[in-house]
Amino acid sequence: MRRSAAETREHVLTVAHDLFYWHGVRAVGIDRVAREAAVAPTTLYRLFASKDDLVAAYVEHNGHGYQQWFTEATRADGRHPRERILALFDSLISQVQPDQCRGCPFLMTLAEFPDGELPAHRNAVAVKRWVRDRFRELTDALAAASPIADPSALADQLTVTLEGVYAAVQAHRADWPARQARAMAELLLDAHRA
User: Fold this and answer.
1) How many domains is the chain partitioned into structurally?
2) Helix-helix angle 81-95:51-73, to 10 degrees
3) Count of alpha carbons within 13 Å of 188, Cβ hemisphere only?
């Protein structure tokens, strides 16, 4: 089957995602990615100059998907900002089921690549900043709709609550961390009412 360079790149990223996410980035060699993607190593190196480039692209690719999920769950479609925030936590319950989640790929990348100069590390940090910024936009919208004491603090607390789910889900292998986070989000929203 002949693919364009763009299609081949997307295919390799899909295969790399499955391998890196479920087995760990450092545990999976570039030859295994090429073999499982059914591409020659030279083809892979034409698409990605090094494993570091492939890992950075993997993180960026995951980031786009995660941002799409977050944006869709919280879209401005006439719902009150509080409902939009809670909808994210509702959506999280199905996202973290054991057959599709072993934790946060960005946190895992940060653990495997602690050097802040590496592109994979920078890409993972960028996703985390994006999430915090989106929560701040949501809490600012909430403050405009119904006064709250401190939108910035609420955004930080919601961010940490979300992150806690990803930290706990691997150990507990169930949806209760997400259900607890949903309840905590409600408590935080109530506590911040002015």
Assistant:
1) 2
2) 130
3) 26
* Claim to verify: residue 163 and residue 96 sit in the same structural domain: yes
pTM of the shown model: 0.92
* DSSP code of residue 48: -
Number of Cβ atoms within 10 Å of the Cβ of 140: 16
How far apart are the C-alpha atoms of 63 and 167, rounded to whole Å?
A: 18
> What is the rounded CA–CA span in Å between residue 23 and residue 50?
19
58-96 residue pLDDT tens: 999 999 999 999 999 999 999 999 999 999 999 999 889
Nearest Cα to Cα of residue 19 among 30, 10, 5, 3: 30
| Separation of alpha carbons 68 and 65, rounded Å | 5
Assess contact for 175 and 93: CB atoms under 8 A.
Answer: yes
CATH classification of the domain holding 10: 1.10.10.60
Residue 132 phi/psi, 5° resolution?
A: -60, -40
What are the helix (H) ranges across 40-118? Answer: 41-47, 51-73, 81-95, 105-112
Do 63 and 21 sit in the same domain of this protein? no
- Contact by Cβ (8 Å): 121, 35: no
Q: Tell me the residue range of the domain where 103 lies.
A: 51-191
